[in-house]
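name: query_chain
kind: protein
chains: 1
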Amino acid sequence: MEESKVKLPKIPATMKRYIYYRDALEAVKRLRIASDGSRYVIRFSLGQRVEHFVLIFSFTTLALTGLAQTYYNTLLGSFILSIFGGIEASRQVHHVAAFVFGIQSLYHVIKFVDEAFVHHRLGKMLPVWSDLTDAIQMIKFNLGLAVRRPRFDRYNFEEKAEYWALVWGTVVMVVTGIIQWFPAQLTMILPAGWVIPVSRVLHRWEAILAVLAILTWHFYHSVIKKLNLSIFNGNMTIEEMEEEHPLELAYLEQASAAIQNRLWPVEIEIPLEDAEDLEEPVQIEEVVEEVTELVLEKNAEGSMQ
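structure:
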């Protein structure tokens, strides 16, 4: 006789996280309701948006004036130099933009240190093990080997990779740029025979790589693939959050719901799976009934033997 099996309901995977009152209060502030009744999320603060604008302005100016000086003998290079008033004026503009870029980078580092060591909140841009598993899941999904996309938190693995590429590029450009800006002073303590030539080569090719990355990878993901204006207006709709950052949305909802607690920290559970991905839940009465039938069937088999 074929054995009967009881199919228990699948328990959804969850991620537990301890939060404090300030986290719950921030979640409440970020979940908003528009005048038309639609819900949206404040994804980026005003300070973050201003920082991004300064980055766009300084990076674009550096790319235009720097590459124009490198390729001054080309038609496009000479045209850009003429717009800025010649090669000497372009060099001065390049230095001003480099100073702004450096101040903005220093501000970003200070903000990171403040969040990490003063407020004890590590940035969401730090790589974690789930980034690797999400990347594998995304490749499988794109190849048709998986039925669903991975569920992302505040930043996905692609955004993190681009961010850390920017950090690495910033370090290279700042170091090599300072060496070229003050060659006489720095070659008094550094070997002049190879430091200046190597700095020029690294500076030039890192600039080309950065521009190509922005024009292809970043521009594709933020404009062509799907127009994402959240870094400019700061907002994302609930539907966009459910599609792009469902784990962050789940965290905000759970954290805001915990605002009424009196004892902190509070442990919240964030579901790691969609409700649609889970099997249809089974009522406990149905499970008890199936188990009872199975026991009676086994007892009947035993008495016949």
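note: DSSP finds twelve helices and five strands in the chain.
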